[in-house]
């Protein structure tokens, strides 16, 4: 009769199990409790069944733990990354110089209805003042040479200011485009990372479930053997 390495008791004939015939996962669990166990040692079928149950329990606990770890990794990966989808308008405004702010203000005013109404009102008042009010001694008689000079100077100054503002707008659009590209790239990488983790999780779960089924099959086979003996 063989002696159990665990209980140090004799094993009934037909109930001895040699360690080399035990599955790797269960054998590793046995060796963790009994480091001096070798493949030539024997244990009883009851002891094997006990460690089978412990191994199945550890697989389930390990599976739940891995699920929680993956969830935490995903949440941590998202939280640790800086938020890119934020309003960059304040950052752009903070980087402007006084001249650029003035150019934007002038261009904004020059492209409004307030400027158009004010401009035509000024021209109308100028013409009425020189034709009617100051008809005897007008400071700018018809054909309003001084007014044409002022309008030419205004156009000469306004054109480069508007071009400067347009360049600023193009720069803003370029920065916004780069910002949108970073957001899209970040989203694409995160989706790819999540997809890889989900694939890994599904494959890992399938392996765990298959291993659990194999252990359960061995357990049922031993039970059937015992029933046949009885």
From TrEMBL:
Keyword Membrane: yes
Keyword terms of this UniProt record: Membrane, Transmembrane, Transmembrane helix
InterPro entries in alphabetical order: DUF1003
Pfam annotation, one family: DUF1003
Tree of life domain: Bacteria
Transmembrane regions listed in the UniProt entry: 113-133, 145-164
Tagged with keyword Transmembrane: yes
Name recorded for this polypeptide: DUF1003 domain-containing protein
Organism per entry: Sphingobacterium paramultivorum
Classification lineage: Bacteria, Pseudomonadati, Bacteroidota, Sphingobacteriia, Sphingobacteriales
């Amino acid at each position: 009769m063989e002696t159990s390495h665990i209980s140090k008791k004799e094993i009934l004939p037909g109930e001895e199990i040699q360690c080399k015939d035990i599955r790797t996962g269960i054998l590793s669990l046995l060796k963790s409790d009994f480091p001096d166990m070798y493949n030539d040692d024997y244990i009883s079928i009851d002891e094997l069944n006990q460690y089978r149950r412990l191994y199945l329990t550890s697989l389930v606990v390990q599976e739940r733990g891995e699920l929680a770890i993956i969830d935490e990794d995903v949440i941590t990966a998202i939280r640790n990354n800086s938020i890119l989808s934020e309003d960059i308008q304040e950052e752009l405004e903070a980087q402007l110089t006084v001249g650029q702010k003035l150019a934007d203000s002038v261009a904004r005013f020059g492209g409004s209805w307030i400027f158009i109404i004010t401009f035509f009102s000024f021209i109308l008042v100028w013409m009425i003042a020189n034709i009617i009010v100051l008809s005897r001694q007008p400071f700018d008689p018809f054909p309003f040479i001084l007014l044409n000079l002022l309008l030419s100077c205004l156009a000469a100054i306004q054109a480069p200011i508007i071009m400067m503002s347009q360049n600023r707008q193009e720069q803003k659009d370029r920065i916004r485009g780069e910002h949108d590209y970073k957001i899209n790239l970040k989203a694409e990488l995160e989706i790819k990372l999540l997809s890889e983790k989900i694939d890994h999780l599904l494959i890992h779960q399938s392996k765990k479930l298959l291993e659990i089924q194999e252990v359960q099959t061995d357990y049922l086979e031993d039970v059937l053997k015992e029933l046949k003996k009885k």
